[in-house]
Structures are given as C-alpha cells and as structure tokens.
C-alpha cells in the first residue's frame, strides 16, 4: 500500500495528458530535479482549457541529468519536438525525465471547479505531493460513475 503523502499531482498540457494516457508518451520531462521513487502514483492534471484530473500513471523511474542527456535518453518517448524541448529547457542546468507506466484514464475527469467546491484546492504549476486530505477532496469531488478513479484513490487513502 502506498503512503498517500507520496502521491504526486502533475500538471501537464492536455495534449500531453492524452498522449500519456494513450501510452504514446512514456516520459515526462521537467526543468528541475524530481525525486520520486519507482511506483509513486501520479495523478495527471490537464491544464487549461481542460482543467481537470484526467487519469493516473505510476513512476517507473526518474533520470536526473543535463537537459542534453535527458533529450538523448528520452527523445522518442517524450512526445515533444526538439524545438519545443529546447525552448522549454532554455537556461536549465539540470532536467528530469520521469518514465511513466500503467496509465489509467478516468472515464469521468474531476474538474477543477468540483475540486474547489470540495475545499481549497490549487493545482501546481509543475507538480506537488498530495496529502491524505487532498486525496479525500479528490474523492469527494469525483463525478458519480468514476469507478477507476474511485477504486484507485480509495486504495491510496485506505478507505
């Protein structure tokens, strides 16, 4: 069973969330060092215009290196063009490549408005770890019928 405080909420553009959930993007790149052990659950928050938690994956591994090394290791799995990557990494000295596995798309995404109606909720600029209380808010905000979401989150918060 996972420690709920080690569940990550990762903000990604909607096209990347779709690609991760489809299994065509298996590496998410970040400008900063990300320290997360293999098996860490990652809730995917799709940014505007979607503005909802749309699915979940697990971290298989994290590579921290120079942006050039991360590109060399992950260019075919990152789902981003070299031009986009270089623009995103401009000025960064270190980068992280999060290898993701076991993606699950939620049949009923959890919209930001519903998350906020369940209590104070702020999606991260990049990523953050969620507390057990945060996960409870996500469960409360989940639309009816979100079986994959509810089963996964119930396991995480040990409900």
Task: Provide a quick synopsis of the model.
With 159 residues, this protein is α+β, with helices and mostly antiparallel strands. It is built from six helices and six strands. The radius of gyration is 15 Å and the shape is elongated.
Written overview of the protein:
By secondary structure, the chain is α+β, with helices and mostly antiparallel strands. 33% of the residues lie in helices and 32% in strands. It is built from 6 helices and 6 strands; from the N terminus they run βαβββααβαβαα. The chain has helices at 14-22, 67-74, 82-89, 112-117, 132-141, 147-157; strands spanning 7-12, 27-30, 41-46, 52-65, 95-111, 127-130. It has a 6-stranded mixed sheet with strand order 2-5-4-3-1-6. Helix 5 packs antiparallel against helix 6 (147-157). The longest helix is centred in the last third of the chain and has 11 residues, at 147-157. It is elongated. The model is unreliable at 1-5 (pLDDT under 50).
Q: Which strand order does the major sheet show?
A: 2-5-4-3-1-6
Based on CA atoms alone, the radius of gyration comes out at 15 Å
Structural class: alpha+beta
Work out the helicity level: 25-40%
Number of strands: 6
The average pLDDT score comes to 88
Note the quaternary state here.
single chain
Number of helices: 6
Strand content: 25-35%
What's the SSE pattern?
A: EHEEEHHEHEHH
Sketch the major β-sheet.
Answer: 6 strands, mixed
Shape: elongated
Q: What is the straight-line distance between the termini?
A: 12 Å
Question: pLDDT below 50 for ≥5 consecutive residues: which ranges?
Answer: 1-5
């Amino acid at each position: 069973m996972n420690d709920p405080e080690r569940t990550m909420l990762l903000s990604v553009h909607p096209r990347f969330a779709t690609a991760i959930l489809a299994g065509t993007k298996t590496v998410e790149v970040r400008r900063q060092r990300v320290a997360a052990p293999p098996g860490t659950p990652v809730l995917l928050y799709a940014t505007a215009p979607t503005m909802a938690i749309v699915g979940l994956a697990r971290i298989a591994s994290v590579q921290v290196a120079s942006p050039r090394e991360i590109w060399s290791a992950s260019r075919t799995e990152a789902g981003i063009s070299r031009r986009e990557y270089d623009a995103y990494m401009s000025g960064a000295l270190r980068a992280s490549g999060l290898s993701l596995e076991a993606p699950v798309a939620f049949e009923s995404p959890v919209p930001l408005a519903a998350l906020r109606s369940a209590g104070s909720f702020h999606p991260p600029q990049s990523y953050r770890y969620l507390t057990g209380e945060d996960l409870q808010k996500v469960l409360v905000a989940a639309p009816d019928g979100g079986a994959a979401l509810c089963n996964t989150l119930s396991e995480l918060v040990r409900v």
